[in-house]
Design goal:
By secondary structure, this protein is an alpha/beta fold. It has helices spanning 7-15, 70-75, 79-86, 121-126, 133-144, 170-187, 197-204, 210-213, 235-240, 244-266; strands at 105-106, 112-116, 153-156, 191-195, 218-222, 225-232. The protein has a single domain (70-266), classed as Uracil-DNA Glycosylase, subunit E, CATH 3.40.470. 42% of the residues are buried. The protein binds uracil (URA).
């Protein structure tokens, strides 16, 4: 006998601690955005940027040690062009130690964008964000709100692996932040979900403990847009603290983010 098609989805929800959805309905407290995002996004997405120039034809201007100039970053008109411009970056001490530059990946027009801290060992080997154990859980978290990894965009504060997976220093984060800002400008997400304390501090400027502020709407201004930010736990933390409470908290945060995206889409 084959499994019901919803079986895998239900298993994932249960694994994330959303036990009552299928078998035992439980009262889930409504998600209250304590500081609701001030802006609504237009229902219709702006027309996509003009088709990118062929990658091979693009030679980004660089400074003498191979780092992209600010004009090359600001002038990139697609993610592909931006990646070409910055993937040889040596602007901070992390550059020389990397195996692969981890640019980020996903839908270039994603409405929901996730920002983590920085690549770990698996990401450094593969050149892709969140592909290790934490990535597996992130995929499940995304699945639990009815989306697939390809539907969202996943990036990091720093694009090269910090040694021993330590937290990036403020200097390293600052050296990389312009790249992330340009990515956000090109993607134009409706909502950003920050994973853990580092992206919340370095991208949004909020240094309060993540346990205190998770689930509370924040905002970040990138370019000329103000973007609602939903802070939640880092999946690596969820793996370490695999309790029902932590998993439910993440589920509620992602559900609130997805609801905001859907509302914005309705207009
Ligand atoms: N942790 C992160 O913050 N980012 C990754 O890409 C992988 C693990």
């Amino acid at each position: 006998m084959t499994d019901h098609p919803l079986q895998a989805w239900r298993d994932t929800l249960e694994e994330l601690g959303v036990m009552g959805l299928v078998r035992e309905p439980v009262q889930v407290a409504p998600v209250v955005a304590t500081d609701p995002p001030p802006t609504r996004q237009p229902a219709v997405r702006p027309a996509p940027a003009p088709a990118p120039r062929p990658a091979a034809a693009y030679a980004p201007p660089t400074d003498p040690i191979g780092c992209p100039t600010a004009q090359a970053v600001a002038g990139a008109t697609s993610l592909q062009e931006l990646q070409l411009a910055i993937q040889g970056c040596l602007a901070c001490p992390l550059g020389p130690g990397r195996l692969k530059f981890v640019f980020g990946e996903g839908d270039p027009l994603a409405r929901l964008m996730f920002v983590g801290e920085g690549p770990g060992r698996d990401e450094d080997l593969q050149g892709r964000p969140f592909v290790g154990k934490a990535g597996e859980l992130l995929d499940k978290m995304i699945g639990a709100i009815g989306l697939k990894r390809e539907d969202v965009y996943i990036g990091n504060i720093v694009k090269c692996r910090p040694p021993d997976n330590r937290t990036p220093t403020p200097e390293e984060a600052r050296a990389c932040l312009g790249y992330l800002h340009r990515q956000i400008e090109l993607i134009r997400p409706t909502v950003i979900v920050t994973l853990g304390a580092t992206p919340l501090r370095e991208l949004v400027g909020v240094s309060e403990g993540i346990t205190r502020v998770r689930g509370q709407w924040k905002r970040v201004v990138v370019g000329n847009r103000e973007i609602p930010v939903m802070p939640t736990f880092h999946p690596a933390y969820v793996l370490r603290q695999y309790t029902q409470d932590v998993r439910r908290a993440v589920w509620e945060d992602l559900k609130a983010a997805k609801e905001w995206v859907d509302k914005a889409q309705e207009g």
